[in-house]
Amino acid sequence: MEISTIMELDRKSNAALLKMIGERFLQARLNEGLEQQELADKAGVNVSTVQSLEGGKRSVGMIKVLAVMRALGKLHEIENFMPEPPVKSAALLTARNEKRKRVSKSKSEKEPSTGFEWNKTIQQLNGNKDR
After folding, report:
1. Do the beta carbons of residue 26 and residue 64 sit within 8 Å?
2. What is the pTM of this model?
3. Closest among 42, 46, 49 to 71, alpha carbons compared
4. What is the pLDDT of residues 100-118, one digit of tens each?
């Protein structure tokens, strides 16, 4: 998908997107040569569901959308609609309920610090220059 298309979709309201999707369902039904009642019967939904979906005026539940897509022979289009995202390593850990591990040692495992002493550090620097 082109960037201009993505940007155009981002600018649309949810209502405008619903209308656009409805128009696509309408065109798919017409391409199959089906009446609304025929599609409703084939999908096992009410004709009002098909009308609402095509009209883009009212939201239709996903189960009903899937039933209509199946009846239109368009179920394979889900892969285009929402492709499976790649799994990130942090997501795998979360999915397995494992705590992410620190790359460095935890504070309790580190060697005790001797603290920072200005005079000692300055002397070391000056000593290194003299050598």
Report:
1. no
2. 0.62
3. 42
4. 566 666 666 666 666 656 5
